[in-house]
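Internal tracking record. Fields below are filled automatically when a chain is submitted to the structure queue. Please do not edit lines marked as system-generated. If the sequence contains nonstandard residues, flag them in the REMARKS field before resubmitting.
Queue: standard
Priority: normal
Entity type: single polypeptide chain
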Amino acid sequence: MGDVDAVTRAVLTASRVLVGVSARSLSAVEGKVTLSQFRLLVVLSVHGTTNLSRVAELLGVNPSTAMRMIDRLITVGFADRQANPDNRRETLIQLTADGHRVVDEVTTRRGEEIAAIVGRMDPAQGTALVEALTAFTEAAGEPPAPSAGHDAYPLGWTNDPRR
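SYSTEM-GENERATED OUTPUT FOLLOWS
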């Protein structure tokens, strides 16, 4: 590979753009949900109803941190909890209709902004970007996100618990 420093600077610059897109896409729910809480909404959207331990595992946080995040989402009406009918000692967490709406809205806004940015690029640059980002994600060990349909993960987060 050529100049590792130049590639690193380019990726860091692109990551600033993507962080900005992420922040702007959350503006519709500003004050109600943080980026971390939104990630929890996405995990629940992808995995459906699940227990606290699984949520914590999927987010890579300890259960007490996950519980605080869940409590905040319940307070704003984006998630709820109920006793597991198969195990009364266990609580299950799920998205509410409002939580699903937030995930869909934010994901749509993010996709539209990224599409607008990519649309301003020369088609050949777009092709090169796909190749470069594919190589980057493969080097990081990230599996590709499905491109469409019910298997597509919101924002590209996978259902791999190691992520």
